[in-house]
Amino acid sequence: MDIMKDLRRNIHPIDFDAFSHGQINSKLWLCEKLEAYFKTLAAKPLSVSIYGSWIGLLPFMLLSRGQLQIRQFDLYDIDQDAHVTASKILDYWKFAADLKINHHVQDCNHINHSENQSDLIINTSCEHILTLDWWNRIPSHTHFCLQSTDMKHPTHVSSPESLEAWKGSLQLHSQQISFSGEQFVSYDTFSFRRWMILGRK
Ligand SMILES: C[S@@+](CC[C@H](N)C(=O)[O-])C[C@H]1O[C@@H](n2cnc3c(N)ncnc32)[C@H](O)[C@@H]1O
Description:
7-stranded mixed β-sheet, globular
């Protein structure tokens, strides 16, 4: 048997940037804030939608930390290849718990919320999405957690000047926000700000 041939057939190209310090650090920040937020609310298993879910590392981290009770993930990404990798990473977790994971190869700007009403919607890819249709369509009272950045990058098509400017563009009132904050990330050759807003629409 040609083991290398067999291995290659099972390996899908992975975007290893997903494992970088900045990507993982910001997701750890999100996990910590989200876990603290839901600790104060009624403990019922959550259905969670993730927009721009990429290769599924955020759901992987939320599951492996084991702090939130999650009964269903709905992962939305326009990139079919990202879903293939995400399902390889996440599929084995379906055995560990009473957990459903649905993959949607779909533009999150076109989600029909009468078909899927999640308790919580997470979007850590806000900087990659030009319009705010995805945000405007989220039903009132839905819990949300969003991240964005001012990092300059060819794929960052939406780049607010500041956390306050970003909040303004989302037309959020202070009563809707439970947490908002900024992390300044500085490396040898570049630096940027990462913002997060957590609350209920
Ligand atoms: C580079 S990745 C994620 C970066 C982000 N910092 C994170 O860690 O979540 C951006 C993802 O958003 C997806 N994406 C971009 N526009 C989208 C849209 N309109 N609907 C759904 N997914 C989208 C891309 O396919 C990609 O997988």
